[in-house]
Amino acid sequence: MRHSLIPVLLASFTIVACAPSQTDEKTPxxxxxxxxxxxxxxxxxxxxxxxxxxLNTNLKGVKVDDVRTTPLPGVYEIxxxxxxxxxxxxxxxxxxxxxxxxxxxxxxxxxxxxxxxADLIGKFSGDxxxxxxxxxGPAKYTVTVFTDIxxxxxxxxxxxxxxxxxxxxxxxxxxxxxSGPDTESFHKAEKVWCAADRKAALTQAKxxxxxxxxxxxxxxxxxxxxxxxxxGLRGTPAIVLPDGxxxxxxxxxxxxxxxxxxxxxxxxxxxxxx
Length: 274
Fold this sequence. Notes:
9 helices, globular
């Protein structure tokens, strides 16, 4: 997912329709090759702050949140929300695009995005999501799904919620009404949140004739929609793993379980030979 640091592009936000599975387009998970740490060089905090100040002066209309060192001498990573770029120390030259470690075969920028996604989603505690968890024992995996009640693939995903749970997968729903605030889809989400039994109401809204109820309670739908924008999401369902990795589009229970197992294996420490 590419984000631009150019102010005009940074301000734009285009939402696309709900999405089918993109599993076939993903590169299979593999054991990562050990590589040098991302921040292989060091710089005093005051010098990083000086670069940040220069950038906030030079990049009109963009607020730079953080500046970090990289393995490339004289090149610094900058972050503005979920947007990343790389600049010279004087703040004059900007490189847009991902920084890749071709030996390890991974995107260092995407690692930063995963951390940023996880941090943002982590601000929504358990009582700010609607969670369907396995009934028999603790979940083996937990995913956060941004959903739109009126999205066809979101409804398809929810129709298999019992199968995800049976596979040991807990699903935490956050609302992403793609039509925006103060729309029919947005109000449906508010009604579900205000229901006495949110899980039953959400199932009814997705699989039945709809849920009709009150929407005047204090609810987090607007904040969840804002979060989807901050994350740069463009469609639903959008599945986010605990470490912040994004899986766009619908996944069957079999596909999602496979992705989660491969992801866990790739993150597991290597077992010494012998």
